[in-house]
Specification:
11 strands, Purple Acid Phosphatase, chain A, domain 2, six-stranded mixed beta sheet
């Protein structure tokens, strides 16, 4: 993957990161207004756009129209992709024979994790729009590596399981990046920042600011508990400024 580089020549733009919006379209829109998001800016959404909230599909449709919103896959998108594809399958005698215990288990697990709201919203769409949504989800990046004003940032939803500083990012498997918890007490890269969501910052031990962005040991944790009564948080990588929607 080519590293995106944003430098001084891009003085009229800003690079932002947000994660774990979880279907809260209103908070997402308020955030865009708060940061004065424009066509000159870039917003990286570090996983878990969907589920729990009631407007996941509406949120995805907005993101789809913005060339400068870059989505990274989270565990909720991963669960959704296979389940939505299954739900779009025409029920016939032949297709019934292909339903496996794994598919049913995956659907039940996704529903337990907040997928039911997304399913109901998805099922209200016409078939062409459903395919557009599914195609868009399947285009989410596994990770992004970007440079902003001389600093390098690795953006990944959950972490880097089985980490080695010598291991290329492209060698990590999907489950190592979207399910496994990151160790915030450990410096992963001496020359890069690791930007993650997945774990609400209130769950980080010895974090002095629960539900605010956490910075330490070259980590930037940006899941501020939006779907748990916390905040939607975002950070501008150009200057470290933090933004919050209650």
């Amino acid at each position: 993957m080519q590293v995106a580089v944003f430098g001084r020549k891009d003085k009229n733009m800003a690079v932002y990161c947000v994660s774990d919006i979880h279907g809260d379209y209103d908070k997402y829109q308020k955030l865009l207004k708060q940061i004065h998001f424009s066509d000159f800016d870039w917003l990286y959404v570090v996983g878990d756009v969907i589920d729990r909230g009631k407007q996941s599909v509406k949120l995805l449709q907005d993101m789809m129209l913005r060339f400068n919103v870059i989505p990274i896959i989270g565990n909720h998108e991963y669960m959704a992709i296979s389940c939505l594809r299954f739900l779009m399958t025409e029920i016939t005698e032949s297709s019934l024979k292909t339903i496996s215990a794994d598919i049913l288990q995956g659907l039940l697990e996704w529903q337990r994790e907040g997928g039911q709201e997304t399913i109901e919203e998805f099922q209200r769409l016409d078939r062409d729009t459903q395919w557009d949504i599914l195609d868009y989800l399947e285009e989410f990046s596994l990770y992004e590596e970007i440079q902003v004003k001389g600093e390098t940032y690795v953006l990944v939803h959950a972490g880097l399981s089985n980490f080695s500083v010598d291991r290329p990012l492209e060698d990590y498997q999907l489950h190592e990046m979207i399910f496994e918890k990151v160790d915030y007490s450990k410096v992963y890269f001496p020359d890069k920042y690791l930007v993650t969501g997945h774990i609400p910052t209130r769950a980080i031990q010895e974090n002095p600011r629960p539900d605010f962005i956490y910075k330490g040991n070259r980590h930037i944790a940006i899941d501020c508990g939006c779907s748990y009564g916390g905040r939607l948080g975002a950070i501008c990588l150009d200057n470290g400024e933090e933004f919050y929607i209650e």
